[in-house]
Amino acid sequence: xxxxxxxxxxxxxxxxxxxxxxxxxxxxxxxxxxxxxxxxxxxxxxxxxxxxxxxxxxxxxxxxxxxxxxxxxxxxxxxxxxxxxxxxxxxxxxxxxxxxxxxxxxxxxxxxxxxxxxxxxxxxxxxxxxxxxxxxxxxxxxxxxxxxxxxxxxxxxxxxxxxxxxxxxxxxxxxxxxxxxxxxxxxxxxxxxx
Amino acid sequence: xxxxxxxxxxxxxxxxxxxxxxxxxxxxxxxxxxxxxxxxxxxxxxxxxxxxxxxxxxxxxxxxxxxxxxxxxxxxxxxxxxxxxxxxxxxxxxxxxxxxxxxxxxxxxxxxxxxxxxxxxxxxxxxxxxxxxxxxxxxxxxxxxxxxxxxxxxxxxxxxxxxxxxxxxxxxxxxxxxxxxxxxxxxxxxxxxx
Lengths: 194, 194
Prior knowledge:
The structure is a homodimer. Chain A is mainly alpha-helical. Chain A has two domains: about 1-50, Homeodomain-like (Arc Repressor Mutant, subunit A); about 55-194, Tetracycline Repressor, domain 2, CATH 1.10.357. The first copy, chain A, is about 75% helix and about 0% strand. Chain A is built from nine helices and no strands. Chain A has helices at about 5-25, 35-40, 45-50, 55-75, 85-100, 100-110, 115-145, 150-165, 180-194. The longest helix of chain A is centred in the last third of the chain and has 27 residues, at about 115-145. The first copy, chain A, is elongated and about 60 Å long. Chain A starts with a helix and ends with a helix. The interface of A and B includes residues 30, 113, 159, 162 and 192 of A.
């Protein structure tokens, strides 16, 4: 009996996504062909099309998968009571989640320009949902008088840019442990909003 | 009399750099050919090679030109006396300089991976020189007891990531003026280090 499309996809799908992620991160989406991705996986180019209709779908799956993972991991976290504790949890979570997936983070920033307008909108909405979680913490803290933030939206974007920036320089085994880095950033974030 | 190479370069050079910058920012370095750049400028592909030996040199010129401009503009600024005033000047300068050149900033982050090792080292050293200016301010402030910073190197990288992040969302004519944005960021930076 021939392999079914289902069982084929189950095995090949993750390998295709991994190969596409690696190649997009290394060379950029526009420079990578479906043929190169197939070669990296070790299948015929035609076999790729059993799994994904085109390169755009592959890019979108990677970026959407990254955002889905982020929101799922965030939803699974315990939520402390106070705005300050919630902000610390958010800060440490954001750094750890992003350090664990450097290539996905890299293409999520680099390749937004290569999404179709429709796909871009979906990713932007997911980002908005994530940013809202941080903005809610800042707003609650401001209402309770523990945070002093002129503009919760801009402070949200500033904190996220600062925390994601860790990915550009942190190497495990370097001068500081991840825990120490998280603590230094948490100290800056806490002071910036109080 | 035939045009000299000198006069030809004087006119065509800036147009080639502009076209390369625009195309690299839009499609990514790896996806853009010398032929496309020539077409965008409106010259034969061969004419490009009078100006630049190859695409790598063109990318390097753009990234190095951006860093040279940054360091020159920074050096031309008045230097206030106190660490706090110097930090405010740095903060406002960094935001303004980067908002003025979105494409150069974009490729300076995106295309580092496409530089040769030798070219990468030169750009990294220039970045290091710029980062040192901020770190010196933080160190002086700490020595004078006005800043409380656990790690001046990491705080430098955190502040630069936060400030450069403005480029990802700011649009002139939006809800806030550049001056208002600078003031909000300066407030966060000031609080984060004191």
